[in-house]
Amino acid sequence: MLTHRYRIQVVANALSCGQGAVWVDCSYVVCGRRLERVVRTAYTETGTTGSSPTSSPSGKETLRNSTTENNKFVHYACRTLSHFLAALCQPTGTTLPDETAVVIVDSLSALINHAFPKVPEDRSGAKPGTSFRKRRGSAARLQTLQYVIGALQKLAATRNCAVVVLSQCATKMQSENGATLIPSVNASVWDQGISTRIVLFQNWVWRDNVPSTVCFAGVQKREGALLSMAVHNAAAFRVQEVSQCYLVCTFGAARRDSAFVQPAEGGGGHRLGRHARY
């Protein structure tokens, strides 16, 4: 998955610079062995030394937290929205390691959509009271989104770190345009807290009459402002054994969404260059 590769590279970059990183899984556990290999490669390329996050000795692809002198890494697995709120929205002194540069939140939309499913359109023949329950569910969803984005903004500002939220896309049917991909969490109260949005996707290209898959990254929102194009400054890249190769281009169709959470007013924050929600 593109976002899987992206978030691993973001964490590896932070750890290779001697800074801390926090990884929050909201859907499935990251591949610990792969993260360990990428971090070791990042140390080699930057000429730094340090211990990388390690997978469990049982051979399972899970991570163990690493808080050594040169490498500070913390991994959480949040299976419900309540667990996530307790872990990050009200963090304690031990929740985040010192000098944390980036907080990765993977598949947060899965927890939100599970706790507060989107309300379908009203249909004829609905039972009495159904509309009221739907409105109450929609209000609870918006209140939760407002609370979560505000808490992440506060976290980014108080800890001076980048909060990267990766989420899925959803399909929206439109009579005039057909099927359209939109962010899975799509609400104005949520979008207002997003500073930068980058979309990762795959597309087909032809070389010598042979089709091949190419990965793309493009900017949709930058420094709080939506861009005029749906995907701006799209760049192609491929994932190799130890590094990535980039090729600038200007086409593609969105497949996966993520964005940057904007720090609350008065606070600082790191800016990392790829698609995720800060």
What this model shows, in words?
The chain is α+β, with helices and mostly antiparallel strands. It has a single domain (2-121, 129-261), classed as Rossmann fold, CATH 3.40.50.300. Helix content is 29%, strand content 33%. It has 6 helices and 15 strands. Strands 1, 4, 5, 6, 7, 10, 11, 12, 13, 14 and 15 form an 11-stranded mixed β-sheet that branches. Strands 2-3 form a two-stranded antiparallel sheet. The chain has a two-stranded antiparallel sheet with strand order 8-9. A hairpin with a 2-residue loop joins strand 11 and strand 12 (225-226). Helix 1 packs across helix 2. The radius of gyration is 20 Å and the shape is globular. The protein starts with a helix and ends in a 17-residue tail after the last strand. Residues 55-62 and 243-278 have low confidence and may be disordered. It is found in: Nucleus. Residues 45-66 are annotated as: Disordered. Keywords: ATP-binding, DNA damage, DNA repair, Nucleotide-binding, Nucleus. Residues 45-60 have a biased composition (Low complexity). One of its GO terms (biological process) is reciprocal meiotic recombination.
Please supply descriptive tags for the structure shown above.
278 residues; alpha+beta; Rossmann fold; eleven-stranded mixed β-sheet; two-stranded antiparallel sheet; 6 helices; four-way junction DNA binding
Looking at this structure, what is the CATH superfamily?
A: P-loop containing nucleotide triphosphate hydrolases
Q: Using the coordinates shown, work out and report the CATH topology.
A: Rossmann fold
Number of domain modules? 1
Distance between the termini: 20 Å
Give the uncertain stretches in residue-range form: 55-62, 243-278
Major sheet: 11 strands, mixed
Biased composition (Low complexity): 45-60
Keywords: ATP-binding, DNA damage, DNA repair, Nucleotide-binding, Nucleus
Subcellular location: Nucleus
InterPro entries: HR_Repair_Mediator, P-loop_NTPase
